[in-house]
Amino acid sequence: MEVDTAVDEGRIAPEKYDNGAVAVRSSRNNNLLLNKKERENLRRVKEAHKAYGRGKKINLRNIKDKKLRSNLKSLEGKVQDATLKAKDVEILHEETPGFLEPEHELERTYRVRQEDIQENVAISTAKKRFELKLDQLGPYMCEYTRNGGDLLIAGRKGHVATMDWRTGKLGCEIQLNEIVRDVRWLHQNQFFAVAQKSNVYIYDRMGVEVHCLQKHRDVTHMEFLPYHFLLATLGTSGWLKYQDTSTGKLVTEIQTKLGPPVSATHNPHNAIMHVGHQNGTVTLWSPNSTEPLVKLLCHRGPVRSLAIDREGRYMVTGGQDQKMSVWDIRMFKEVSTYRMRKPLSSIAISETGLTATAWGTKSTIWKGLFDKNVSEQKHVSTPYMEWGGEGKQIDRLRWCPYEDVLGYGHDEGFSSIIIPGAGEANFDAFESNPFETKKQRQEGEVKSLLNKLQPEMIALNPNFVGNLDLRSQEQRQAEKDLDAPPEENVVEKVRNKARGKNSALKRYIRKQKKRNIIDDKKLKVEAEWEKIKSERQGKKAKNEEDYGVALSRFARPE
Amino acid sequence: MARRQAHGRPLLRESGPKKSGSKKAKHSIRSTALNAFSIAADQVDGRGPRGPRTRQLDVEAEFHGKRRKPDSSDDEDEDDDDERPRKRIAREDDEGADDSDGLEWRVGVDEDDDSEIDSDDAFGESDEENLGITKNTSKGKGHKVEYSEGEDEDMEGVEQDDDTSSLGSEAIDLATALDQWQESESEQELENAAEDDESVSDGEESASAEEDESTSPSSDAGVFDEEYGYDDEDATDSAYNALHSVISDFQDGGKNGKERLDASDLGISTPKDAHMKTLKDLGLNSTKGGDVQKTVKKLKREDKRASKPGAGKKTDAPLPQRQQAKLDRSAAYEKTNETLDRWTETVKHNRRAEHLIFPLAQNSETHGVDRDAIAPITKATAANDLESTIMNIMEESGLGPSAPRETQALSNENLNKPSKSEMKERNAALRRERLLQSQEEARAKRIKKIKSKAYHRIHRKAEQRKQMKELEALEEAAGEDGKTMSLGEQELDDLNRQRAIVRMGGKHKDSKWAKKGAKAGRAVWDDEFKTSLKEMSRREIDLRRRIEGKGDSDSEVDSVGESYSESDADPGADPDAKRKQLLEEVELLRGEYPTTEDKLLRLPFMQRVEAKKRAENEALLKQISKELASDGEDKSSDDESVDIGRRSYGQPTKGEKSRPALAMEKINKPSAHAAASEDDEPLSASAAEGAEYGSAMTNGWEIAAKSARTSKKSKKGPKPQVAELGINAEVLTARPVGKTAVPLRQASRHQSQPKPNGPVGQGLEIDDTSSSDDSSEDESQADDEGVVSGFAAEKQALVRDEGDKVIDETIPGWGSWAGEGLSKREEKRTKERRFLKKVEGVVKEKARKDRGKEKVMINEKMIRKNGKYLASQLPHPFESREQYERSLHLPVGQEWVTKETFQDATKPRVIVKQGVIAPMSKPMYQASGTAAGGGGKKR
């Protein structure tokens, strides 16, 4: 959890007169006129809105329609209520987050060594610090699953292994005898993708090759978008390809035209791909556009590493120019730049906003590089913690979700160290559950498949779905796809298939009932059938009225 | 009313002809037997037409009158004709229910009224007759006899009948009215008494009463209400009016009535009685001729009218039945509407309600029970015996609701004033505690203080830096003329000096505290006192120095006693001195080992604890000293590394030899240290400083950074130094500040970037964003590769592509050139004929999101694939885009909201719980503001 700093309300000091009168500057927004309880309440609402608010309220006064006004008023009430309740529920958070804190000014948190921490933490936590010595098969890459339960490590020389790192149980271990360029878990710990020498392969948890994605050639970077079930790959040729892992279809292939990528990551907030290039630019891609949505000139040299915080507000980039810059990627503004000793080889941002950077054999963890609650970002001068310097060339570092653990893949294997305050203290089991059982995992898989988002829903603003199309009619006409095939009339098609007048529809429904599949076509046919039935009923009733029950049967059909 | 009439009329009309036939026959049979009675009936009948109310009230009289006089065909009585049969039957019903003497009749103006009417609808006229006959024969013998006895008695009997019956009816009316108004009992009694009287008068003067009623419509309304059984709040007004009218009626005719009653009771003949007697005496009763009878009747009537107060006025003819019915219907319609309107609010509310839960809460057993808070039980609110007895007991024992405050106050007082013995005890306890407090703890406290000193020192640096900046600002404000000292600074200096003088004025030395301490010899045993004494003496020296004019301008210094304050011996050397001092203190503390004198402390476990604490203290001390030492090293390394600055070539301004900075540093250091030592001579220190300054100025290097650092350490900055020089050592001439100021500021800017302590040594470097030369270098490098310029060009192209475009659609004519590369002249020629078309782009250049952001390029083209998920038009009820989009903002799913919110959002509209679903027993919501609105309209 983020610890919000108390915001100074900036209350205006009231002018006082000798007769005791108090001058009130603005009558509306005045805390002086409120009693303590009201003020407390106001503060509570304000805090709740800051943490969980859902945008600005609309002005209800200028709504003419009474019904609409009352509806919207109740809606605003509901929004407010939901916000306050979300804030109130915070007391249910069992764990309290915290960081290493110096006792006095002379103490430095970065002087704290892993040994010191290990001595002073609980045994179960101390166990989370471990090393895997694998010095034969080259620099290792590492990845954690989304719930932090499993670890996937892959050596450059083809050694791939998965494990439940908490228990130390090995899932599978395979030797591919091929160069491994990148490795990535898919939606759960059941599958993982490996970018090998020429193709991308998908393996299941036992290490059995399940798929070979032949369209993805010479892939160097991969990203998996969990809500869309998309595997995005970037090859040396500079093509960005999106593969739907639930349907197996290749969604799009986009040519970046910027040469082989140097680094890539995705924004967890809006599923936009961020790709760092040789010329120092970072480009933002969605599968819906053949051009980059945004281009940022971040460095004066290749962008070696990229990371985005989980809220999708800030991006930290490290360039060959030995600089690290922090970008606000909603405003597209560079908020600060830091000069480094060496170019950063890997960056990762934890759930609480700790930024781990690796350069050469060393690694530094920064705290407070960005803070969403302040308008002007601070320039941090001292790191939070440090690690390394033991001759291990760090290839990749990753934070373990929901844990205070940082994993390093280096040329001598894998190291896991403890960084206090890195993980989210209170997990949301709806999102991902670090302690999930097998059943829960299975159900979660189904649910996430049902809730799968379409690739067309990816945009810079992920809340655009349902918004009003602001294009003019002309624009729409101009942009209309004239080559698109006309929408076929399902009902007509079904009807024409058979001889009878309505029996075709009926028969279709009857047949479909057996199959128990509800799709668009069936719904349409059923609706049509209902319509016909009701029409018939109406006609019958009318005839009965006109001719009487007995004679109605002789009425002439129209 | 309307309903009743509707039922009643057909009955009458059907029975009309029948009635006449049968009645006549009967009449002929009984004509002689009922002769006396018919006369009496005539008399009653002669009262004239009546309103609905009186008709009801005096049914008895009417009944008798009509029955005995079936063939009366007077136009006057036509209206009565319609009414009569119904009344009669009602009466007879009553009679049937009554006891044998048949005199205690009730008029049915109660709730049973309707049912009675229904029953009388069921009877035919003939049935009625039969009933009447049977009754008369079986029960009414005495009655008949009485009637036949004479008019006197007859009249009396009628009167009495009237009395009882009307009393009954009135009593009901009043009771309801009084219930509604909840008047006091006494009042009710009064009313009852009045009623008695009134009923008597009613018998006599129903006509006048009727008149009154007809003139007051409100009373009519009241009658309506009662008849329909509305015990409605809305109808309270009319009920009230009815009551009033009743009372006023009574008042009108009260006097006469009373008189009469009294008279009749006493058997005294009133004038009227006398008159009747005269008639009887005349023997007219026995006359059988119709003409005579008629004339007698008329006479009587005239008589009566003359005797009444409102005599002379003729009552209006009642409205035609049809019209009356219409009026009644409309009134009834309004009434019905009113009742139904009471539900509209509830229905509306339920229609709009988000959730409806059945069975209704209104019908639940616990409805209306306040479960929120339990009010304390008082004697008055005690619900049952148990509670009240408990309350009584508590009251008696002084624990009741009225008691506690006093007792509390008492106990508070007791607490506030401890007794002597208590005080003694407390003191003893405190003493013991103090004794137990280990010496080690005291030591730990002191160590902590030193630690905090270190902390203060650091903060102080920052403070100094800040002040220095302010001073610089002041300097700038003062301008860069030759003035050596700005006004503000001079003032500050003066102020400091003054303060120091004041503080030296024996105030502290001879303070109460010091004297007391000296007297008690506290310095011998109290360490704290000792240290503070030391501190005081040190400060004295410090202050003295300041009086002489070379102390710093620290305003913090005046923090008294315990709180840490630093004395800056002199600006160049102060940190070292301080460190030294701190180290000394640490050493002192290290050497100190508290000796145990107390027996208690010699106990093994106490000693163990003490040892542990000591170890901790030692560790802490070690750490502090280490840190202090390391700080010193850092500093020295800082000093060495700091020689940055621009090298100025050419001749030095003054003909002095230039010396390398390092050498100068070496010279300076010892002097600074000397200055830091506690018992330094201020003169020497300043001299050393002056020397440093001078050398710096004359150096080949402009040691900007150095000077900046020194200035940061001292709050004084270069200017006071110069002034000082002027005072103390006139060896060197003061150099105008204007020149030094510039490099100084530059340097300070360089230094203002915070430098990390640790990571530098570990090979970590933190950005110097301000190191412009570096970044410019980078820029130039990057530009060599064309990255920046390429990016800019690309952006340009994008802007152009997405912006508005002008397309030349001119079609060149015959014989003219067209296309690119047209000569100027040709272009000019074709200018008039040019056809340009402006194509609107995606976004105007000024409205671009990346406008003004050099490093950002945002593609503003609409992404077609996303359009699939956009709403093509504003959905119906919404008036604007904001409203619509706002309505989408609250998610429903439980992933995004709390469980409670989710459940609220997904609750079905109608929830039916198990149980019997009873209909609404009463309207749940009242129309708010209708009454107020009505009032507003009236006004």
TrEMBL record, chain A:
It comes from the Eukaryota. Gene3D superfamilies: YVTN repeat-like/Quinoprotein amine dehydrogenase. Residues 65-92 form a coiled coil. Residues 383-462 form the BING4 C-terminal domain. PROSITE patterns: WD_REPEATS_1, WD_REPEATS_2, WD_REPEATS_REGION. GO terms for cellular component: 90S preribosome; small-subunit processome. The keyword Cell division does not apply. Residues 534-558 are annotated as: Disordered. One of its GO terms (biological process) is maturation of SSU-rRNA from tricistronic rRNA transcript (SSU-rRNA, 5.8S rRNA, LSU-rRNA). Keywords: Coiled coil, Nucleus, Repeat, rRNA processing, WD repeat. Involved in nucleolar processing of pre-18S ribosomal RNA. This is U three protein 7. It comes from Zalerion maritima.
From TrEMBL, chain B:
Residues 408-418 have a biased composition (Polar residues). The keyword Transcription does not apply. Residues 73-82, 92-102, 110-130, 148-164, 182-214, 223-236, 554-573, 765-786 have a biased composition (Acidic residues). The keyword Phosphoprotein applies. Residues 55-64, 325-337, 540-553, 626-635 have a biased composition (Basic and acidic residues). Residues 1-237, 249-337, 397-423, 540-581, 626-691, 707-796 are annotated as: Disordered. Residues 20-29, 709-718 have a biased composition (Basic residues). Keywords: Nucleus, Phosphoprotein. It is found in: Nucleus, Nucleolus. One of its GO terms (biological process) is rRNA processing. Pfam families: Utp14. Its main location: nucleus. GO terms for cellular component: small-subunit processome. This is U3 small nucleolar RNA-associated protein 14. Coiled coil: none annotated. It comes from the Eukaryota.
